[in-house]
Amino acid sequence: EWNFSPHWSLEADALFRELHLGLAGLGSNGAQGSTNREPVVTWEFPVLAKYRFNGTRIRPFMEAGASFRTAGNLNGTNPSHYGFTAGAGVETSVFNLKFAPVLRYTRWAEDSKTGFDQARSNPNQLELAVGVSATPEANGHPLGKRISVGALAGIGLTEDTRVTSLEYTYLTQSGLIQSVNQTTSPQRGI
Question: How far apart are CA 143 and CA 11, in angstroms?
Answer without folding.
Answer: 15
